[in-house]
Amino acid sequence: MGYVSRSGRRPYETASKSSHSYIINDPAVVNFIGNCNLPKQATEIELQNHHILKIDEIERDPINHIIAIDGGYSEVHVRKEFPSSTLAFFQFGALVFHVSDLIEISKQAFIDPEDIAKLKNIQRLKLTVPTKNITLNGQRSLTYSVRKALYDFFMDAPKEEPLIETLKWVVFEEYDSALPKWNLATCPNPDVEHHSAILDKSKIQKDYSFECDHCGEKIYLTDVFRLHEAIDDEIGAGGVLGYLTTLVEQIILIHLIRLILKTKPSLLSEILFIKDGPLAFFGQTANMQRPMRKLANYLLENKDLFLAGLEKSGVFVEHADEISGRLRPGEILLLDNEYIYKYIIPGKADPDKPYARTSYYGGKLIYKSKDERIYVVTIPVNNEKVVLSPTKQDFKNIDIILHNIEKLKCDMYDSSLIPVALVNKLVSLADHPSSVILEKFAKTSINK
């Protein structure tokens, strides 16, 4: 790594123009490259040995409402000069609309702006998190500040029914036979020796916190996400932003499900929930897939659940594009463990370690619609673990879900859906002008 110019009086140290020759001529490097494997191309893939199914016609479509959930963030500099400091602004949204409104609009020759407004009935939540060289008043470090910012967000948003109550509801499985304790792998208080902690529901405080039995320090209920493990007070918290986005999106999903069960349970069987991205928790938050999987299984067995995760990018989407010509309209390709490791992610399938066993709570599939659009979809699997070789029976409501995905087609982008495209437009934060405006806002507002 070269030297930088802090004062501007001396030049940057540039990289060598010839050092690459030492790498190219190193036998160990040449041998290493020769042992690397690449994903298979379409001509090398054998589809006939895998689960290719047809979508079945449905007698009645129970879906009357669509709820799409998405989030985005922008990390901005509050100070660019040394020591640099950054903040991250998040915005999350749940877009709700009636299917009948969409059908009526599709029949019109000209679209009235008031009709489009019906499809933009969105609820937004905002979160601000320090990410480098910033601490909140009363907090002793960046790690403590991030913990407190996330805790305050869950305590305050939304005002009428805060997310923290939903988090307690799903973590301790209050919808069914309540779970008495939650094992936290690491206590979030870094000033003491690292140790695990047990969160006993019977000892939860009114402010949704616990006292650690080992060190006596406060533990927030939001510490179950374990984000504190991936934050470094010197390097910063930038590495957790993507995990945090996916996490809050799905907590909002759980929150909406809880409110529906609380107010009008029968409505759950009329709603299709669509999440932007796969049904999974990643990184430090991956442990949340266990309570989410249990909730999904409970709803599939005792109520009903129509939920799908739609991917817009990544290796699975690239693979779907690669094989799209090999699938016929209306066909579904179920992605089992062997197929994923043979054709999508180079590696060797292990029956004891199925793909995404610690992060996903659903199964992946590729669907080619009747109008030849290609979708990568995750749908909850009614099983306590990841299914190695899923069958159509493992995906409850699969025909209804895919039928509605096809109905929601959007011509704005490749294989896009109207609710996903709309919610992304309504909550995403662009580099220009959003990040520039947020940066100016943060600089003028901090320490006022």
Sum up the overall morphology in one term.
Answer: globular
Number of domains: 2
Number of strands: 15
Q: Report the mean per-residue pLDDT as an integer.
A: 85
- Structural class category: alpha+beta
Calculate the terminal CA-CA distance, rounded to whole Å. 38 Å
Radius of gyration, in Å, reads: 24 Å
**Regarding CATH, which class of the largest domain?**
Alpha Beta
Order of helices and strands: HHEEEHHEHHEEEEHEHEHEHEEHEEHH
Q: Any idea of the CATH topology of the largest domain? A: archaeoglobus fulgidus dsm 4304 fold
Taking strands numbered 1, 2, ... along the chain, how are they ordered across the largest sheet?
1-11-12-13-10-9-2-3-4
The total of helices stands at 13
Uncertain stretches: 108-113
User: Percent of residues in beta strands?
Assistant: 15-25%
Helix amount? 25-40%
Q: What's the CATH architecture of the largest domain?
A: 2-Layer Sandwich
Task: List key phrases describing it.
448 residues, 2 domains, archaeoglobus fulgidus dsm 4304 fold, nine-stranded mixed beta sheet, single chain, 20% strand, two-stranded antiparallel ribbon, alpha+beta
Write a structural description.
By secondary structure, the chain is α+β, with helices and mostly antiparallel strands. It folds into two domains: 49-73 and 86-126 and 242-448, archaeoglobus fulgidus dsm 4304 fold (2-Layer Sandwich); 134-235, no CATH class. 31% of the residues lie in helices and 20% in strands. The chain contains 13 helices and 15 strands. It has helices at 20-24, 27-34, 99-107, 113-118, 142-156, 163-171, 241-263, 289-302, 315-323, 337-344, 398-407, 418-427, 431-445, and strands at 52-54, 65-79, 85-98, 121-132, 181-184, 197-200, 209-211, 218-220, 271-276, 307-311, 331-334, 362-368, 374-380, 409-410, 416-417. A nine-stranded mixed beta sheet has the order 1-11-12-13-10-9-2-3-4, with helices on both faces. A two-stranded antiparallel ribbon has the order 5-6. Strands 7-8 form a two-stranded antiparallel ribbon. A hairpin with a 5-residue loop joins strand 2 and strand 3 (85-98). Helix 6 (163-171) packs across helix 7 (241-263). The longest helix is centred in the middle third of the chain and has 23 residues, at 241-263. Residues 108-113 have low confidence and may be disordered.
